[in-house]
User: Fold this.
Amino acid sequence: MKMECMICYEGGAKYKIQCGSSVPHCICFTCEKTMRLKAAPSHKGRLLTCPFCRQEEKEAGLRSRSSYEAELKLLYEKMYPKPTELPGYRRLRVEYHQTSGWCKNRSLGCQMRSRTTRMCTYPAGCTEFVCRNCTMCVGHFAQAPTVAPPTAPTVAAGSPPYNP
Assistant:
């Protein structure tokens, strides 16, 4: 006669609770896993309380693999909790700022062979690295628009000269 689980009435009762009863109290592995995860951990591990006689297990019986895996997962999640994100909030990105770099003019013929911590001295606040010989990176001058110098107003023939 096949014994069924006395908690869920499904499947075969394969886990025998080690409660010390003269009659075997058996449940299925699914119920064993659920009950074990609800039990408080102790120095002996998570020991079940028998749902029939209310005696605590003397020692853990032959558990299923899924029961061990579920308990290990629970312990892992407790040791390494996932970072929680609140809805509507974005995570702050930490940006890495370099403290030294190669001279920006190196591709244009600068002979400096070591890294530098000097910054470009362009008045608008450039953040490129330049060596001691190159005080400014040439990128500002290659892209700078050419502005014509101001000219004096033209005077039409026959009109009086302009004197401001």
User: Anything to note?
Assistant: The two ends are 119 Å apart (CA to CA). The longest helix spans residues 65-79.
